[in-house]
Amino acid sequence: MMSSQTTDSVTRKIRVLLVSDELEVGGTQRQIVHIARSLDRNRFEPTVAYFRNRSFLVDQLEQAGVPAVEIPKHGRIDPAFVLKLRRFLLENRFDVMHCFAFGGELWGAVGRRLLPASRRPTLITSVRNKYDWYSSLQWRLKRWSALQSTFVIANSHAGGEHARITMGMPPGSVDVVYNGVGDAPEAAAASPSSNSGGPVTALFVGRLVEQKNVPVLLRAMKRLGDTNTELRLLVAGDGPLRALCEETIARLQIGDRVELLGERSDVPALMSAADFVVLPSLREGLSNVILEAMMVGRPVIASAVGGSVELVEQMGSGLLFPSDDDAALADALRLLAGDRSLREKLGARGRQRTIEQFTVPAMVRTMQDFYSRCAAASPTYGRTN
Fold first, then answer.
1. CB within 8 Å of 329: residues ≥ 6 apart
2. CB atoms within 10 A of CB 57
């Protein structure tokens, strides 16, 4: 590991490139936007590069004055893309390159290696899940990228330690920086919910993909119906499993209590209107959804996987249940649906904990320190030609 001493003799702004293989709406992508928009512009000059799947996140970056550059990639292996990426890196002379997700890390590391040694930015790679689905080849490639990195930064201790051991890297070689969440308007955070006149409402927010395991939530809702527990479920998000979710809702005959909202850009308002939030994932890094729910004072029911157990305190800020256990999830749903005072108690504790430990400013301050330390060792920083 490098010394924490930084170099102050050079006054040029530190050029930071954040790389993701895609900029669709997801947790990692939203954290990239938080970082890029919040860096101190007196010290840093951020740019975001991505390869596919533009979303409104690009608009948010551009509105904040952060260049968001698409370098189109076609197919798994695209030599023309690699050449374009190399040229982009060569022309812009970044000091630090922080890569996210498998594709961003791999191709970012490849593009960097194709530069002359004197023009290579220092590299940071990421760990944002336990990656249980990675093949042995993917782990070898991830290790190859990690070994070139000045820092490997995880967003949870669980994910970081699993990756470190799997990649065969020594203790202390993976740092942890928790995700950050923006503050919520005090009125919204303090209110019990804007749904006080209707049935208790649970909210799921996320992509409709296998990892998020919405089917277990639908099965739990069926169990509640069989016990006459009154609870309405809103599902905010879209993805490849939407049709399966629609079929499951019809088969379980729970369409009167479950509504698929599709992708939404008003998630904070939805959370403020809900009574609590549910995240039944099969695997999870450090969930932005959990953090956002806690920030607006909503308790969370989450599967006890990955970084979720580092965020949700059992009967402190929410409830945890064994992964893919619809009976246990139904019990947790029933408990919160029937106890308003418990919901308010857990929500207040979650908001306080988030303010103390998981804000965007806290995350960005730590990232800025890493970027400054990287720039001090970068062969490009301070060069004028």
1. 216, 217, 220, 278, 280, 301, 303, 321
2. 23
**Which residues share a beta bridge with 15?**
45
The answer to whether position 2 is within a domain reads no
Give a yes or no: residue 369 inside a domain: yes
Q: Are residues 345 and 369 in the same domain?
A: no
Q: Which residues constitute the domain of residue 230?
A: 186-357
pTM check: above 0.70: yes
Question: What's CA 216's distance to the chain center, in Å?
Answer: 22
The answer to whether 83 and 55 have CB atoms below 8 angstroms apart is no
| Claim to verify: residue 175 and residue 309 sit in the same structural domain | no
Dist. CA 270–CA 350, nearest whole Å = 18
Question: What's the pLDDT tens digit per position in 143-157?
Answer: 999 999 999 999 999
Alpha carbons 91 and 69: distance in angstroms, whole number:
13
Q: Which two structure tokens, joined as six digits, stand for 208?
A: 């409709």
Q: What is the residue whose two structure tokens read 């099965």?
A: 219
DSSP 8-state code for residue 150: S
Domain count, the chain: 2
Q: How far apart are CA 65 and CA 118, in angstroms?
A: 29
Q: Quick check: is 1 in a domain? A: no
Q: What is the pLDDT of residues 259-282, one digit of tens each?
A: 999 988 898 899 999 999 999 999
Task: Label residue 91 by pLDDT band (50, 70, 90).
Answer: very high
Asked if 23 and 146 sit in the same domain, the reply is: yes
In a domain, 5, yes or no: no
In terms of domains, do 349 and 369 share one?
A: no
Provide the CATH number for the domain around residue 336: 3.40.50.2000
How buried is residue 100: exposed, middle or buried, by Cβ count under 10 Å (0-12/13-18/19+)? buried
Q: Which long-range contacts (CB under 8 A, 24 or more apart) does 2-11 make?
A: 2/150, 2/373, 2/376, 2/377, 3/373, 4/369, 4/373, 5/373, 5/376, 6/372, 6/373, 6/375, 6/376, 7/375, 7/376, 7/381, 7/382, 10/381, 10/382
Whether residue 291 sits in one domain with residue 148: no
Cα separation, 89 vs 115, in Å, equals 8
